[in-house]
Amino acid sequence: MDTTRYEALAAGSAFGLVVIVVGGLIIAAALVWAIGLGIKVKQREPRTPRGGEHPTLPESGPVHETQQRREPDEVPRAEETGRRLTPHELSSSGSRRSEDQSRPRWDDGSSGSFGSGGTGGK
Where do Gly residues bias regions lie (predicted)? Predict the structure, then answer.
């Protein structure tokens, strides 16, 4: 009986096993190195501020912030103007400042956009 063939197959599978083990060790070493590098980078960053060190809003409120009501800037249809608009004729914003700047208030007994507007469980 010729065992040379079986010995060659066994040697090949042993080599494959060694390659898998060495590859696994290389991957594990790379992961350990990456974790160590991440820890070093984290230590170089400034620490997060504690509770009393966070910046606070000034008494006058947010700086450089405006509140305004906007309404959609409708694009005219081709049937109305007689021609199609080109991209440079469109504005950069899809809305414009509304003429009525008063804040909308819900009517008493109205639920806004939710439900049927009934009394809601009363």
Answer: 112-122
